[in-house]
Fold:
Amino acid sequence: MAQTMNEGLAKRTVHYLKQENPAHVLHFKTLQKLIGFVALGLPFVLVGGEYLRDLLVPGSKDNPWVVIEPAISSYFHTGMRDVFVGCLVAIGIFLICYKGYERRDNWAANFAGFCILIVALFPTTERLPEDVLPRSLTLFSTASCKDPGIIGIIHFVAAALFFVMLAVMSIWLFTKGDTTNPRKRLRNKWHVGCGSVIIASLIFIFIGKKIAPGLFESFGFGFFTLFFETTAEGAFGVSWLIKAGVWFADKQPNSG
Structure:
């Protein structure tokens, strides 16, 4: 009799643990929204914030002719450095804390989070003449010594892996599930589209930096890296907000 009761209690406990806990779902969706909104707004906050800082603090900019930095990572070496690093660390922590429906979702998100933390800690190389000392100190530089060249390479590779993993999540992981649901099929199209935009943005950046340097500049498109990083960040943010149910969520049945 006691054994039967214990077996029944064990079965009920297992059944309860397998059910979705509303608090966990809320936490899960909140993380997705935070990741999406921070990614979506980061480029605009950096550009707008630095411009506003230049207006409020005259003479704060080393080069007054540079209105927009050439890349998002270049804002590490501006007055928006703390905002830039803080947002990247926040995204990294959110991704590492993220728990998907399957183990591969966790691994992909955790790997992306680890990569973006490396991007934050290993800054892009500050573009300066050889005889000019660094203006912004990092973990690896001093007032009289610039960052080693390997730091910029690590930054570039980690950033590329971060975006590649986000594209993989959007195209192959977020699209898993019941495809008989019309809303799910619509979300899948957006996820695939966002992932494709991320991949296309990376390809254009690689072309402009490695395959044909100066190509975009010849058309007066000097901030092409910033532009394509913004499109990739935007696609990343949109995909995660759709995943969080901000857009194209399943319609709830009318109550009563």
